[in-house]
Amino acid sequence: MKYQIIKEFPHPMMEKGKRPVISIYVDTNIKKPDRLENPIRFKNLVKEVQASLKDKEFKRFKDLFLLFKEMEEDALFWEGATESMAILGDEEECIVYKLPVNVKSLAIVSDSYYIKPILRSFQSYGHYHVLGLNRDNFVLFEADRYGIHAIPVDEKDSTMEGVLGTEKTAPHLSVASVGGDQSLYHGHGGAKDEQKVDQEKFFRYVDSFVLEQYSKIAKIPLILVGLDEHQGDFRKLTKNAFLIEEGIKVDIDALDKKSLHEKVQDVMEGLFKNQLKERMAIFGEAHAKDQGSDDLVQIGKAITEGRVATLYLEENKVHPGQFDSTLGGITQGELENPKVGDVYDDMAEVVLSRGGEVLILEKEDMPTERDIAAVYRY
To answer: Class of the 3-114 domain?
Structure first.
């Protein structure tokens, strides 16, 4: 058995239905000498997992535990550690998420994977496109919390010359008679006017190209990078609903890849904070109209009825027990029992499976004093 480092969520392994499954989260140190403790921390978490499994179950996970031992002793694996890692496995597969946010170290054996910390990471540091735009060319990037990568685009699609070719606006000339056979040619509209016409044609093409080829398919935010004047001209004509309001007003050619990624991350962090403020207001309005709640029992019932549009959960809160997705009942339990997981995590999985949204928030960002809240569809 081998492990895979994963950047997609959810992963097909989570839908297999194998029971029980193992979820290990390691709050890793990334600086020397503290990072030397990471393998020891992981080893202790694995011991917790082993202690919670019965003999028959333990034998089924023999290959996974052998893999855990290899991971523990693999210096390169820990050399590439981020702020934290999620290690999920069943008796057949093992996947690893390298998370850019700190999470609480824990080990859980249950009927489903513990996913709240991964959700938290993905919602804060998501996936997005970056469009670097100049007057006569553009570049496109795909970015996430790990880095930023250029998307190859053919020159015939990424430059004004390639797009317009012979259709570039020619000078408009008229002829005036001077006398005899002599004629005088006058230009109507200066070079700036012609450039403006061509730029608009090119920008419309760029807008349509990015929308049809990328935004409609990926359905992720698009961040515009370019000089203020180009930002204004492009935004006047764009039809791309995925283009976010805040752009990076600098010449794309003036940024190296690292600087660009840092600026893009700042934009996305600001966007997420603004969205949180909006979400708090939405919950307040919904709660006042009985279209939202922070009562656990009521929310459980609404989840089973498919009425939860958005579920808010406080991060790092683990409520041992089981959630009955059919009747909405909640049973308390102990995490040492391999059949017991996190009630809120189970709720999150059901909401996601029924097309709802789950937000994992810090305590101060929760829309209520309680550690759970929901906005209903109806």
So the answer is: alpha beta
